[in-house]
Amino acid sequence: MVQQTSTAMRLAIMNAVHDLAVIVARDEGYFRDEGLDIEFVAAPGMAQATTDSDILNKQVMFDRPLDTMFNDGGLDQYRMCEWGIVKRAVEAADCGLRSRNIVALGAAMSKFAIVVAPTSDFYEPEQLKDKPIALTPFNGSNFTTLKMMEGFLSREHLKTTQAGTMRDRLDAVKRGDVAAACVMEPWISVAQKQGFRILIETHSSRSEAASDDLDGPTLAAMFRAQARAVKKFHEDPTPYLHYLTEETGELLEPHELQTWRLLYAPPRPYTRERFEDTYNWMVSWDMVPAGATYENTVDNRAWDVP
Question: In this structure, which CATH number among 3.30.70.1140, 3.40.190.10, 2.60.120.280, 3.40.47.10 belongs to the domain 9-109+205-303?
């Protein structure tokens, strides 16, 4: 068991679908069982109906709220899509910002889907050739859209655009401002409820990033707590569904959430093969500078604990 310290570590909670393992571990006292003193810090996310979409008008990725909180020392640990964590871990040092490493492949395999309007003439991904798909630049919806669509369209015909939060994107599709949008749960369930057509969907893994201030035993304790939370959630997700549906601003009730899309697993080490495959794909899209290595980006210290 980790020795509890007098200073609380600060963990981010943003979009519920990504952070449910943390939320369940918090609610069930699993972090406390590990002797951890944790301050949970809320950050605005694109799944939250209350989020101001002007966040996305910031042209520099590191100027977004969660990034600025970490860079200013207000957070010690957070999770994002696998590609987003790679990008931030690689580029932070080059930008003179607080360093972070990838410390695990995270618990959440969040579901993303590309949807079109109920009356749309688009019925398959190929029909989105040269048509704008709404998403968040350099976040999960961005990378996952490219991964889903590049099997159907050549890169020069794969077009994306920024249209705000998940709710903003669905509204933009309804108005005809964009052809399609990439959304995640609970907004896939909202889209289905409102009659949107789903063209393609997939799971997208999270990764965990941490500052140098969190040592291996501390991270190991955090991930043990999340592993317990994953088991608890899959035994009965019902008590926790409100965290997702509340993000929709009453557009969805818990019983309307498509729970079969919610998939979680215990955090695990981030392997060299996984890093190289992900990083090289990102370099091929010119989304991250070349030259990073597994050694200077990944630190599986949670699994080096005796």
Answer: 3.40.190.10
